[in-house]
Design goal:
Elements (H helix, E strand, L loop, with lengths): L4 E7 L7 H13 L3 E5 L2 E4 L8 E7 L2 E8 L1 H19 L12
Antiparallel strand pairs: 1-5, 2-3, 3-4, 4-5
Helix pairs in contact: 1-2
């Protein structure tokens, strides 16, 4: 069994982007593996904060932030898929600002 670890990722999807972009992002949420919906306005995948495995997202001044608990391999696969799918729907390269994505 894979070890469960805390995972984080911050993406260059900024809070001030137009509603048209955010509509595409929120539609993407529902197509991602593990989607369970919103709980108190927060999107979740696989479970909630009290579960062993989960991912949640929040919009921060630093960009769209993801936090979760899952194995490193599962996390890498999921977040890379999100970046790839988001790049297709929003019309710009989605990635982590610290990796040069602005």
């Amino acid at each position: 069994m894979s070890e469960i670890n805390s995972q984080t990722c911050n993406l260059n999807i900024w809070y001030y982007l137009p509603d048209e972009i955010w509509d595409k992002v929120t539609n993407l949420y529902g197509s991602m593996p593990g989607w369970i919906g919103y709980k108190k306005g927060i999107p979740y995948w696989f479970g909630c904060e009290n579960d062993d495995v989960f991912i949640m997202a929040s919009v921060e001044p630093s960009g769209l932030s993801f936090y979760g608990k899952m194995s490193n391999d599962d996390w890498s696969s999921w977040i890379e898929r999100f970046k790839s799918e988001a790049t297709k729907v929003v019309g710009f390269d989605v990635g982590e600002p610290e990796d040069g994505f602005i």
